[in-house]
Amino acid sequence: MIRSLSGVLLAYVLLLVQGVVPLARAADVVAPDIQNVQVSEVANNSVTITWETDEDADSTVNYGLQEDYGIVRIPTADKKKHSITLDNLESGRTYYFRVVSSDALGNQGISANYKLVTDDSRQSGSDAGQGQSEAQTTQTTQEIIEQIQEIQDPQRLQEIVNETVKAIQGITEDLTIVGPPTVIPETTTALVRWTTDREASSEVVFAPAGSYSEGQYAFSQSSTGGATKEHEVQLIGLEPYTEYHFKVRSTDTYDITGESRDYTFTTKASVPEIRNLRIVKVEENSATLAWDTTVPAKALIEYQDMTTGARNSVGRPTLASTHQMRLADLTLGTRYVAFVIAENAGGDRVRSQPITFVTVKDSAPPIISNVTNESTLFPGGESRIQTIVEWLTDEPAHCTFTYREGIAGGVEPTVLDSKDSGYAAQHVEVIVDFAPATVYQFWLECADESNNSVKSENYVLFTPIQERSIIDIIIENFESTFGWVKNIGG
Predict the structure, then answer these.
(1) In 117-232, which residue ranges form alpha helices assigned H by DSSP?
(2) Considering the domain 177-266 in this protein, what is its CATH number?
(3) What separation, in Å, do the N-terminal and C-terminal C-alpha atoms of the chain show?
(4) CA–CA distance from 300 to each of 281, 344, 423 (Å)?
(5) What's the predicted TM-score (pTM) here?
(6) Residues in contact with 300: Cβ distance below 8 Å, sequence separation at least 6, in sequence order
(7) Residue-wise pLDDT tens digits, 295-307
(8) Closest by alpha carbon to 37, among 110, 120, 95?
(9) Phi then psi for 269, rounded to 5 degrees?
(10) pLDDT band, residue 260 (cuts 50/70/90)
(11) pLDDT digits (tens, 9 = 90+) for 164-217
(12) Pairing of strands 190-200, 228-235
C-alpha cells in the first residue's frame, strides 16, 4: 500500500514539474491589452520577442525549459511597443514563454502561452529529431517513476519528495498579485481584498503614516481561511481618521511569496454626538445657543422664523468640542425653531433635535469671557512696562477697565473708559503706567445697548522684574560689604 501511494504521489509531483498542471491566471479588466506577439531574430542561443499594448506598460517575459526557468523584465511602464531579447539560450531546444505587461498603476496583463525552437546549426531542423528527443525525455521520466516505485524505505521517499519540491520551487513562476488591492475603511477597521494568480495564503502588513518608514510595517494581520485566489483580511484596532500604509502578501504551498507595492488608506472619522444643547440668552433681536460635541467638529445652526417661514443659518468652520454661537438680526416677539449640525473632520454630519425660543425685550447683561493679559518690559534708562488686556463679550457691549495696585485694597482704583470705542464684542486695553515687579488687581464692567450691565470677577497680574546691569550688581555687592559705598556720589 505504501508503495502504491508513494508512486501515485511522486508521479503527480513529476507531472507538475513537466508543466502538465497549468497555473490559472486571473482576469483583470483594467489591465493592458496585449496584442501582436511576435518571435523574430531566432539564433542558436538568443531570440527576440515583440508585442504591443493599448497603453503604456512595462515589459516582462516569463520563459524556460522543463528543467530551467527564467524571467527578463524592463520595469519602466513607458511604452506601448515592447521588445525583449532572451540571451544565453540552448540551441535547438524548445522554450515556452508568455509576455506580461503592467501599467503605472500595477494593473497586469498576461498573454497566452507560446513556444519556440531555437536554431540549431548541427541539425537540419526536421521535426523527426525533435520528436525523437521528446520521446527520449518521456522514456527517461517513466524510468525514474519505476525506480522510485521500487523504494520501500519511507524516509528515502520523503527525501525524494523534499528534493522534488525544491526543484518545483526553482522552476515555478513568481506568485502574482493581480491588480491593486481594494480597501473598505471604517472608523476603527478596514476590509482589504485582493486576487492572486493561484491559491495562496492571505496577509496584510500595515503601519500608521505618522510612524511609518519605507518598508517598515509595525503590524501584521492574516486570514485563517486557508489558501485561496480571492483574498480578504479584516484589519482591526485602527485609529479613527488616520492614514495607514500597507501592502498585501500571499504565499503558495511551495513557499513562493508575492507581495504588492506600498498603498495607503485613511480610516473614517468618529461621528460626533451633540450633547447639552441649551439656550444661553435670548434678547430683543438675538439669541445665544451653546452645546458640546464628543469629538472636535465644525458648527452650524439652521433656524426658521415660525411666523414668516423664513430660513437662515450661521456656522463656524473651525473644529472644537465646546461651542457657543449667537443668532443676530432676529425679530422681537417672534418664535424661532433651531437645529444644531455638527460635522467631523471627515465630513460626517449629525443633526440635533429642534430647540425653540421666543425673542423678548433684552434684560440680560453681556457675558464676559476669554480674559487674558500680557506684560512686556522695555529696557532703557528708565524701564517701561506695557500691559495688554483682552476679553470677549457675547454681544456688542461698551466696557470700562478698572485697576489698582496690590490685592489688599485701600488704594484708590483707576478707571479707564474708552468712551469713543462704541459697542463691540472684542475688547482690548493697553496700559503703560504699571511699575515693574508689581502686583495689580483689575476688573471689567460691560453694558450692552439696552444698558444691561455686568461686572466681572477680580483678576490679578504680575508685571515683569527689571533686569539689572553688571554694574548694578557690583555696586549692590559692595554696599552689602562696605557701608560707605552708598555714600559715593553723595
Answers:
(1) 127-149, 154-171
(2) 2.60.40.10
(3) 125
(4) 18, 12, 26
(5) 0.43
(6) 313, 314, 315, 316, 340, 341, 342, 343
(7) 999 999 999 999 9
(8) 110
(9) -80, 150
(10) very high
(11) 766 665 555 678 888 889 999 999 999 999 999 899 999 999 999 999 998 899
(12) antiparallel
Q: What sign results for the dihedral spanned by CA atoms 37, 39, 41, 44?
A: positive
Instruction: Give SS3 for 147.
Output: helix
Which of 119, 125, 117, 98 lies closest to 109, judged by CA?
Answer: 98
- Architecture of the structural domain at 2-171: Sandwich (2.60)
Distance in angstroms (rounded) separating the CA atoms of residues 55 and 382: 78
Which pLDDT band holds residue 25 (cuts at 50, 70, 90)?
very low
- The 3-state DSSP class for residue 353 equals coil
- DSSP-based three-state secondary structure for 452: coil
Residue 148 burial by Cβ neighbours in a 10 Å radius (0-12, 13-18, 19+)? buried
Q: Where are the domains of the chain?
A: 2-171, 177-266, 274-358, 368-462
Q: Could you tell me if 87 and 70 are in contact, meaning their C-beta atoms sit under 8 angstroms apart? A: no
Q: Can you say whether the dihedral through the CA atoms of 48, 52, 57, 61 is positive or negative?
A: negative
For residue 5, what is the enclosing H or E element? Answer: helix 2-17
Q: Which amino acid is at 245?
A: H
CATH topology of domain 274-358: Immunoglobulin-like (2.60.40)
Residues 157, 3: Cα–Cα separation, whole Å: 10
Q: Do domains 2-171 and 368-462 have the same CATH topology?
A: yes
Q: Which of 367, 341, 345, 369 is nearest to 355 (CA)?
A: 341
- What values do phi and psi take at 52, rounded to 5? -130, 150
d(CA 233, CA 251): 15
Collapsing DSSP states into helix, strand and coil, what is residue 280?
Answer: strand
Task: Please tell me the CATH code under which domain 368-462 is placed.
Answer: 2.60.40.10
